[in-house]
């Protein structure tokens, strides 16, 4: 199986994880249910909008939003860098101040930047957090949308043992195919996160095609798995996903997560008991812990437990950036995993 191929790569010292996705600045704000009901798009989903819509929505908010670097796979790479792993992020930014901030934050968090530059503005995502900790996203891709298939070469993923691909790239079929082919050519395992149930709804047929042809590790939450497989029962959904890939993951929030490999289903308990403040980045940081564990040869249960620890900590803060205290607790968890 390809997972065993990965373990061999690890033994040979190949521990780079490369991620490709949208380079975005995250704009985060808390609002009530009534505010969300007046906006376009489904609550809990992601809707592409123009920059004017984001500015108009911001003008209606009472509180000043928080601004941080973001993008789903970027969040994952930042987490891997904080954990001490070797990470690279491939994306496209603008020449503006937001673009400079984005690249500097990658370097600050020990992530190697592989960034193409555009004269268009750096992309941004408005994440609105409701009292139930659910996040609803409105995204203006800007420069991120201008990443071209011909810009993706084997060098983007050079020496990567795992390539992690953002599900949002499904809206650019030529680009995601170029990334999949380049990753496969490099001999890396390919991991894909389904990103959002709205993404899956609009890309289901194409998604089936590329998963069967390229993907080794598939991650989804319960909503994404339901839309992709047609099963509302999460275990049936996991089983359907596992028939397509080497390793299948379904994340079920407070109930933890499930990992399927070689016909065996592993139940991973949720970490911690504190109520979530904001679920922004929960899946992204879960992936940080899980992929970091894989690249370091942890058992799949330990990979899931580390993913759970990262996912829990990011839900205790606003945004997808875990503070220093959270990382210290996660690293203590890693020490405990080594003792078991």
**Helix fraction by DSSP (H/I, runs of at least 4):** 40-55%
Give the helices and strands as they follow along the chain.
Answer: HEEHEHEHEHEEEEHEHEHHEEEHHH
Low-pLDDT sequence parts: none
The CATH superfamily appears as Ribokinase
Could you say which structural class the secondary elements and strand pairing correspond to? alpha/beta
**CATH class, please?**
Alpha Beta
What's the N-to-C terminus distance? Answer: 26 Å
Query: What is the arithmetic mean of pLDDT?
Result: 91
Distinct helical segment count: 12
**Which sheet architecture does the biggest sheet show?**
9 strands, mixed
User: The CATH topology is what?
Assistant: UDP-N-acetylmuramoyl-L-alanine:D-glutamate ligase
Structural domains: how many: 1
Say how many strands there are. 14
Side by side, the strands of the main sheet go 6-5-1-9-10-11-12-13-14
Q: What CATH architecture would you give?
A: 3-Layer(aba) Sandwich
Shape: globular
Specify Rg, calculated over alpha carbons. 18 Å
Supply database-style keywords:
24% strand, alpha/beta, single chain, five-stranded mixed beta sheet, 340 residues, 12 helices, UDP-N-acetylmuramoyl-L-alanine:D-glutamate ligase
Could you explain how this protein is built, in words?
This protein has a single domain (2-23, 71-120, 150-339), classed as UDP-N-acetylmuramoyl-L-alanine:D-glutamate ligase. The strands form two sheets. It has a nine-stranded mixed β-sheet with strand order 6-5-1-9-10-11-12-13-14, with helices on both faces. Strands 3-8-7-2-4 form a five-stranded mixed β-sheet. Strand 12 and strand 13 form a beta hairpin. It is an alpha/beta fold. It contains twelve helices and 14 strands. It is 41% helix and 24% strand. The protein has helices at 2-11, 33-37, 51-59, 72-83, 97-108, 173-185, 197-214, 222-229, 234-242, 282-295, 300-314, 324-339, and strands spanning 16-20, 24-30, 46-48, 66-70, 86-94, 111-118, 123-129, 135-140, 160-166, 189-193, 217-221, 247-251, 257-261, 264-268. The chain is globular and about 55 Å long.
């Amino acid at each position: 199986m390809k997972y065993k191929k990965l373990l061999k790569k690890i033994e040979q010292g190949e521990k780079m994880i490369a991620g490709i996705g949208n380079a975005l600045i995250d704009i985060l704000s808390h609002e009530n249910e009534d505010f969300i009901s007046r906006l376009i798009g489904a609550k809990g989903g992601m809707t592409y909008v123009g920059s004017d819509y984001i500015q108009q929505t911001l003008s209606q908010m009472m509180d000043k939003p928080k601004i941080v670097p973001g993008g789903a796979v970027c969040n994952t790479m930042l987490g891997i860098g904080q954990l001490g792993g070797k990470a690279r992020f491939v994306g496209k930014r603008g020449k503006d101040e937001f673009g400079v901030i984005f690249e500097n934050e990658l370097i600050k968090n020990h992530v190697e930047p592989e960034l193409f530059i555009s004269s268009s503005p750096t992309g941004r995502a408005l994440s609105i957090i409701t009292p139930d900790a659910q996040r609803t996203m409105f995204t203006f891709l800007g420069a991120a949308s201008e990443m071209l298939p011909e810009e993706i070469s084997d060098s983007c993923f050079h020496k990567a043992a795992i390539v992690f691909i953002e599900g949002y790239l499904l809206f650019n079929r030529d680009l995601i195919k170029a990334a999949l082919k380049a990753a496969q050519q490099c001999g890396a395992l390919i991991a894909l996160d389904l990103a959002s149930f709205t993404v899956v709804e609009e890309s289901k047929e194409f998604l089936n095609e590329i998963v069967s042809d390229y993907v080794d590790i598939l991650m989804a939450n319960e909503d994404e798995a339901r839309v992709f497989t047609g099963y509302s029962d999460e275990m049936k959904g996991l089983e359907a996903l596992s028939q397509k890939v080497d390793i299948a993951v379904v994340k079920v929030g407070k109930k933890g997560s499930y990992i399927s490999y070689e016909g065996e289903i592993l139940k991973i308990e949720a970490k911690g008991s504190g109520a979530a403040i904001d679920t922004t980045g929960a899946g992204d940081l879960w992936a940080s812990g899980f992929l970091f564990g894989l690249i370091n040869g942890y058992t799949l249960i330990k990979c899931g437990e580390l993913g759970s620890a990262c996912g829990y900590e990011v839900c205790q803060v606003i945004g997808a950036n875990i503070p220093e205290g959270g990382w210290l607790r996660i690293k203590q968890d890693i020490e405990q995993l080594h003792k078991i």
